[in-house]
Amino acid sequence: MSKKKYSILMREVLFQGFFRIDRLHVQHEKFDGALSPVFTREVFHRSPGVAGALLFDPQHDKVIMVEQFRTAPAIVGMNPWLMEIPIGMVDPNETPEQAVRREVQEETGCVVQDLLPIMDYFSSPGATDEYVHLYAARTTAPAEGGIHGLVSENEDIKVHILDAAQAIAMLYANEVKDAQTIVALQWFATHHTDLRSRWLVSDVGTPII
Length: 209
What we know:
Blueprint: E1 6-16, E2 20-28, E3 39-45, E4 50-57, E5 62-69, H1 71-75, E6 81-84, E7 87-89, H2 96-108, E8 114-122, E9 131-138, E10 147-148, E11 157-163, H3 164-172, H4 179-203
């Protein structure tokens, strides 16, 4: 892939609330070697990013997911209660690994026992600087779901405990509408058998290779 010169000549803060919107004045080297004109782009600021986990109990072959209200689907008239993996913003003083352990605890009450990186990527690089860190997380599923989330953040989060096959079937039935959850479930559908075997071996004390 190309790596060329670019300059951010000016940055304006257009809005600062729970999130921030910046306007950038930029110029970059083109593929023919010439410089582009100076142009502007608005960027939805969400740095240092978000971290989420496909929460899996290998002993019982369960996936733990959460359901909560999201405002963006409501704007376009779609069902705003989405099924998702636990995910949230990385605080400035956290690593993504620390953030995902915290988010899992806050949103599900579960404790992360192991973390395995899935992938990291920009969620929509033409519009936002949000960088997504996805993991598979080993845990022990509770006997039943419940309602979780931080009252201080107006969170009302319902926990769902699903058979692994049921979670994968939701993906293929197009019942999942959150991009991060789709990516995590697609990875899980491919790696489910190997992941379960790996973590079950770990549970009996044999080192993971």
